[in-house]
Amino acid sequence: MSLLVYARVSAKPGFTQETNAANHHIKIEELTDPKSSQLTIKTVKQTSDKSTSASPTREEKTVFEGFCAPFHAICRPSYDVFINHRRIDTRRTVAGLLHDYLTRLDLRPFLDSRSMRPGDNLFDKIDSAILDCRIGVALFSPSYCDSYFCLHELALMMETKKKVIPIFCDVKPSQLRALNNGTCSEEETQKFNSAIEEAKNIVGITFDSSMGDWSELLRDASEAIIKNLMEANQDWPNEN
């Protein structure tokens, strides 16, 4: 199977190139197994607009872990993973470490404290990132349910049928419940609790920050994210 694309292709950690139809010809070839864990692409650099059949210079690169599935190469979203978290609990620990770890794997995680800039509209930027991403990571923590933003993000991920990976940091699933403290309507409270219950029914990761192995947490989380990304990318062409 061969697939010709003019697209933004991630070839290796730290390498991202915006292709131009006049200057580059990206060919994905020899893709016999769509579930293969690796994908080889050939970059053919042209000398001019008319030199499509001229002898090209080729550089073979291997894409990390099959992350770029065949159709994913055509249209990669701005963010691959949305990290939903309570900043007061996890910004300086799990969330920040996970963001940096995923970035080193050449993934594109969204984390509010790293991905937003002065002047960005809070709801617009966050909602857009959730709608754009393929995977959501919900970092549940002791004060998670006290945050309207956390609950809003979780509910939106569930409503839009994102694949969500729950990580329970220093909190048990049974302790999670949204209470109507006057900051939201009764209807919103019910919607938030419905999203929490849905998350509880997903197999997740439990972590105790006082005794847990941080490197093991990052490894387990990244493996789950990559696995779900590959599954989401295979499903993508069939979505409406």
TrEMBL record:
Annotated protein name in UniProt: TIR domain-containing protein
Entry-linked Pfam families: TIR
Superkingdom field: Eukaryota
Gene3D superfamilies: Toll/interleukin-1 receptor homology (TIR) domain (3.40.50.10140)
GO BP term (any one): signal transduction
Residue stretches making up the TIR domain: 77-225
InterPro entries associated with the record: TIR_dom, Toll_tir_struct_dom_sf
